[in-house]
């Protein structure tokens, strides 16, 4: 397990009664508020509690005015295609990068608590940790990765809004991905983040053809650019957390909807 033990005692966080299946291979349960997280839905591969297999885990958030529901499309995709556990979160305050940064850090504490909770289907079954966020949440995961250091193994920042320029000591392998038509979170933010990351990690900056800011919210479409976004995020996880050679090939030879692909892989 690459999530380092917390330096203080975390009490077990109560799980809400609602649980179910997402219609495919993903099951879920809801969690109450904790720290800077107002609510969370935990997506996981159905039946993992009956297996000793370890699963990678990620936080996931939207951005300004968003809630966890806006990112369920990606949570389900990651469970079904990457066999991941996903903590989709709503921030207690969703109006700034700083608030989202605190929410992701709270979610990391929630993950550690569930890993050590004998009543949780995740008990002792979590492996490497990723952080994923969109817009303000995208800037937040970059900043959180800077603060959390080696606790974090991979980062996906989607259309990141105003991340810190102080990213030179980030140790997590990081993908910054944005749409070329984004007039809210300019592609310059993502490219600037890529440039500020150290050369000693796997990192990439990708720009999607004909893709705007709001296409990341509830992205359930089947257009070539929305499919490419999901493919590249899945490949990033698979390569950097599992060492998949085929995923590396996908990242180095992305679909045509990826118009810019700068990387250090």
From TrEMBL:
Any Pfam family the entry gives: PETase
InterPro entries assigned: AB_hydrolase_fold, PET_hydrolase/cutinase-like
Source organism (scientific name): Ketobacter alkanivorans
Domain PET hydrolase/cutinase-like: 39-237
Protein name: PET hydrolase/cutinase-like domain-containing protein
